[in-house]
Design a protein that fits this description.
elongated
């Protein structure tokens, strides 16, 4: 039981760090190339959905019953694969239109190959986005395993692993870029206004 409390403490601390970061100034869009604006807006939207998925993973680890745990695992899976994705369950929401984190990361990877950004920046962005895609894929795999688990403790272990992968995919603003993470990428990009922009890469 003490081990479980320690694990919960680590999760809560990591969630506080994850939710606390991400604020950026919002100067005018005029001096920022449109491709960079699209990248920044896409990454911001991804960071918000990852934060929500982290919250769901925390609730999954702490779930008192397997039914609750499977509900949270299914919601994480929905956020990862998106509508129409393998394993998506429309009964679990969310109700608003959205693109799953995995399809969005794949689309961003393809967009970066032709985006109007300096070659050195493109290389760094491509490297980190591919790493984020891998981490999100591993989070998806553990969410699926949590859904299939026949014991609460085994499901909790998979939810904890999903949390770890999601947390690494989000990263922190202070992380070196080579470690990856959406927030680390946003740090090296110019800040842009949070006006609605077509995010479809």
């Amino acid at each position: 039981m003490n081990t479980r409390r320690a694990v919960v403490g680590v999760i809560v601390a990591a969630l506080i760090v994850a939710v606390g970061g991400g604020a950026q100034p919002d100067p005018s869009l005029s001096s920022v190339p449109s491709d960079v604006v699209r990248i920044v807006v896409t990454l911001r939207a991804m960071s918000e959905r990852i934060r929500l998925s982290l919250h769901l993973a925390t609730m999954g680890v702490l779930s008192p019953t397997q039914l609750d745990q499977r509900l949270y695992a299914g919601q994480i899976l929905n956020h990862l694969v998106g509508p129409g994705g393998d394993g998506f369950d429309p009964r679990l929401g969310p109700e608003e239109r959205f693109t799953g984190l995995l399809p969005e990361a794949r689309s961003l990877t393809e967009f970066l190959a032709k985006a109007d950004v300096p070659p050195e920046l493109r290389e760094r962005l491509s490297f980190v986005v591919k790493k984020v895609l891998l981490l999100l894929t591993m989070a998806r795999d553990d969410a699926v395993q949590a859904l299939r688990a026949r014991r609460l403790d085994i499901g909790a272990d998979h939810m904890l692993r999903a949390f770890a992968f999601l947390n690494a995919a989000l990263g922190r603003e202070t992380d070196p870029v080579y470690l990856g993470g959406v927030l680390a990428i946003l740090r090296i990009l110019p800040p842009v206004a949070s006006e609605p922009v077509d995010r479809e890469p």
